[in-house]
Amino acid sequence: MVYDSLMRKKKQSDDTTILMMTGVSLVNSAWLAPLASNSPLLKLGNPVESPLPFYDSRCDEIFCHVGASFGQLGSVDPYKMNMRKVCLSLGSGSGGGGGGSTVLVKDDHYRWFARFLLEGKIVSELKELGGMLKDEPAKITKRKPSKIVALLVNELKRLDVFDLKGFKRELEKDKNYLWEAVKSWCVKDKSVRVNFLNLWRSQVKLILKVGY
Question: Which end of the chain has fewer CB atoms within 10 angstroms, the N or the C?
Answer without folding.
Answer: N
